[in-house]
Structures are given as structure tokens and as C-alpha cells.
Amino acid sequence: MNSPEPEHLNNHHRDTLRKIFEHPVSHNIEWHEVVSLLEAIGTVDVRHDGEIVVHIGSHREFFAAPDGKDVDEQMVVDLRTMLSGAGFGPPKAG
């Protein structure tokens, strides 16, 4: 398996990745930005119940779309865990 290469991500994806790993947790990360990032680095399947199944390498996670346009703090924590486990982290400055 190839190691993740954030360089292939566009500026919007890198910005979303940065927001996910920000401390304190950012409260303005839009769901559609998260889905776009996940599609760029893995496979996203929408289930009949509205949940999405995300596969990044050997990692798999289920996410439910938030009620509003932004993801909540717990989802950010879950995204950090999944992305870190798949070898992703905050984009390097510069």
C-alpha cells in the first residue's frame, strides 16, 4: 500500500484537513467539505439509511450526516482518529 501523500490534495482539501486537526476544535467545518476530502483520499459509499461508509486503506468508518451544515466536535474527533490511523495528519505549513 502506498503511503498517503497530502500533496495530491487540492487547496480546499488541505484546508479541510488543517481544520480537522486544529486545536481547539474548529466549529465551522462543513459536511460537504469533509465528504469531498474523504472522497479524495478514500472511497465513500452512501447507505440507504443516509450514513456514509468511508474506506481509507484498510480503515473503515461510518458517519451520519449532521443535522446542520457543520460537523460537530465528536465527529471531528472521530475524523482525526480515522485519518491519523490511515497515516494522515495536518498539512505541513508552507
Order of helices and strands: HHEEEH
Describe the sheet with the most strands. 3 strands, antiparallel
CATH topology of the domain at 30-87: Rec A Protein, domain 2
Question: How many distinct beta strands?
Answer: 3
Q: What is the CA–CA distance across the termini?
A: 27 Å
Which spans have pLDDT < 50 for at least 5 consecutive residues? Answer: none
Strand order of the largest sheet: 1-2-3
Helix content: 25-40%
Mean pLDDT: 88
Percentage of residues in strands: 5-15%
Structural class: alpha+beta
What is the CATH class designation of the domain at 30-87?
Alpha Beta
Give the overall form.
Answer: globular
Our count of helices gives 3
Radius of gyration: 12 Å
Label the CATH architecture of the domain at 30-87. 2-Layer Sandwich
What does this structure look like?
Helix content is 37%, strand content 15%. It is an alpha+beta fold and 94 residues long. It has a domain at 30-87: Rec A Protein, domain 2 (2-Layer Sandwich). β2 (52-56) and β3 (59-63) form a beta hairpin. The longest helix is centred in the C-terminal third of the chain and has 13 residues, at 73-85. The N and C termini lie far apart (27 Å).
Keywords:
3 helices, globular, Rec A Protein, domain 2, 94 residues, three-stranded antiparallel sheet, alpha+beta
Topology record:
Blueprint: H1 11-21, H2 31-41, E1 43-46, E2 52-56, E3 59-63, H3 73-85
Antiparallel strand pairs: 1-2, 2-3
Helix pairs in contact: 1-2
